[in-house]
Amino acid sequence: MVATLAKRTAFYALVAGIIVIAVFPFYYAILTSLKSGTALFRVDYWPTQFSLANYTSVVSQGSFLRNLGNSLLVAGAVVAISLLLAVTAAYALGRVRFRGRSLLLLTILSVSMFPQIAVLAGLFELIRGIGIFNTPLALIFSYMIFTLPFTVWVLTTFMRDLPVEIEEAAIVDGASPWVVITRVFMPLMWPALVTTGLLAFIAAWNEFLFALTFTSSDVQRTVPVAIALLSGASNFEIPWGNIMAASVIVTVPLVVLVLIFQRRIISGLTAGGVKG
Amino acid sequence: MTDLTVADPPAALQRRSHVNSDLQAQRVRSAWVFLAPTLLVLALVAGWPLVRTIYFSFTNASLTNLSGAEFIGFDNYLSWITLKSGRTIFRGLLADAAWWNAVWNTLKFTIVSVSIETVLGLVVALVLNVQFPGRGFVRAAILVPWAIPTIVSAKMWAWMLNDQFGILNDILLGLGLISQKVAWTANPDTAMIAVLIVDVWKTTPFMALLILAGLQMVPGDIYEAAKIDGVHPVRVFWRVTLPLIRPALMVAVIFRMLDALRIFDLIYVLTPNNAQTKTMSVLARENLFDFDKFAYGAAASTMLFLIIAAITVLYMWFGRVNVGGER
């Protein structure tokens, strides 16, 4: 009896430890963002102050709102384009048998394993060459390298598992493949589309290397780059309060999305083995 | 868990398609039409830039003069001249101590971080595999580090690891584990530890969720049988659970490994200009865009690509991981 009680206590202590470690840094960022003045530089474990000064300062100065808009625009466009391309590609790869299908799938998957740095020099040349350097288009285009393989992969797996009868009935009625995709499959695929769309959105929202390299002016940056480059008057005056406020603003929508769509995200992650 | 193989389309469809070969031909034609945009985009965004990067690595291209690049063979990788005195001077990436330092840093980071993440991920997955009240809450909590952008987590931790005002020093001092405040991110001895702490915090959830998916595929009656036979739980774990989740574990490890090998943003933000944490990606980008040694950076990028490709092939070969392809 005592042994099981000890075991249960140890188990719940472990559970509590996991929760605290997972959530504490975010909690501490919120705590810091709500402090102002000298209180910032005092270590507190519990909320002591509720000041929105950091928030107003980060939103009013610089181009933070513009950066938020850029991030939203880029991530939204990336999701829309990659889903559109991936649905048709997934139909071809999941429902039609043709030579070279496995090889194609493997090639597409291997693109997602590419180190981004390996294409950076070539992409830089291309993006400058077609004149989209320092525009959102440069980011929308380059982000396809990681969202497209993943969405194609997950949607292919999903489409393959749909029953054959629904498609047959449409084909017997003389429906073209395009009609089959838009009228028959699309309505069934909403769960998969939401999951992959969310994961693609998060990946695009969080991306840093391309955003850092392919934009050069403050107003064209996305939020991760803006936060990374947020600095004070000198190296020794890092505006921690502002950085924490900006971090919270960027992260809260993601955390809310993740909590709402928890199950979908987990199933999408495990189905695609997508990177975090 | 991850059923990474994609089987043929349902057999019934195939059979009937053969009856009407016109229909099959039409389907194949439209399949290629549907695939074309995706393949075109991938060729443009991945294939062509990769080819160009490799090409640049054999030239003397500079950031300001990309089009005037001249072919110089393997000079960016290795070249040597013999002086009159008989001394040979080697130049190029393969003779560059900074490059080998970056290779070593990357490998060290990859091996240590992936090992820790695998063990901790396994622990978290085993906890989440137990039915207990509040399980959904724990699962939600561990998704938080995963969802936070890497740059944001780097900044949040940079603040917590701050030498003067950081909470981590406060906690460790309070516990008596350190006697004076540590400059985690600036000190050469602790910079790599700081990077590892943040990376483990951020990516263990991903590992845990992949392993959990594998754990949930293990049929419950195996545990029942082992319990009835009186097998010790630890023995059950090593003899039953671990072999059964091995495929899931392998896939999770390889995804994490490929990710760790190309790490850039965390190090760029958390410990900039620190030789102890400079990885291959950081070094390559620095040469490409900051040092005006574009071709040299392209050579470093190409080497990183080759190293990652080689490790992937080796790992898949030895681990016999079937990622994609036929059943």
TrEMBL record, chain A:
Cellular component annotations (GO), alphabetically ordered: plasma membrane
Signal peptide: none
A Pfam family of this chain: BPD_transp_1
Keywords attached to this entry: Cell membrane, Membrane, Transmembrane, Transmembrane helix, Transport
Gene3D superfamilies in the cross-refs: MetI-like
Biological process terms in GO annotation: transmembrane transport
Domain called ABC transmembrane type-1: residue spans: 68-261
Superkingdom field: Bacteria
Principal localisation: membrane
Topology within the bilayer: Multi-pass membrane protein
Transmembrane segments: 12-30, 72-91, 103-124, 136-155, 184-205, 240-261
Localisation: Cell membrane
Family (UniProt): Belongs to the binding-protein-dependent transport system permease family.
Name the UniProt record assigns to this protein: Sugar ABC transporter permease
Source species: Sinorhizobium saheli
UniProt lineage: Bacteria, Pseudomonadati, Pseudomonadota, Alphaproteobacteria, Hyphomicrobiales
TrEMBL record, chain B:
Location within or outside the cell: Cell membrane
Membrane topology category: Multi-pass membrane protein
UniProt keywords, alphabetically: Cell membrane, Membrane, Transmembrane, Transmembrane helix, Transport
The UniProt record lists the keyword Transport: yes
Residues that span the membrane, as ranges: 31-51, 109-128, 140-160, 191-215, 236-258, 294-318
Gene3D superfamilies per UniProt: MetI-like (1.10.3720.10)
Gene Ontology CC entries for this record: plasma membrane
Main location: membrane
Domain ABC transmembrane type-1, first and last residues per copy: 103-315
GO biological process: transmembrane transport
Similarity field: Belongs to the binding-protein-dependent transport system permease family.
Protein name (record): Sugar ABC transporter permease
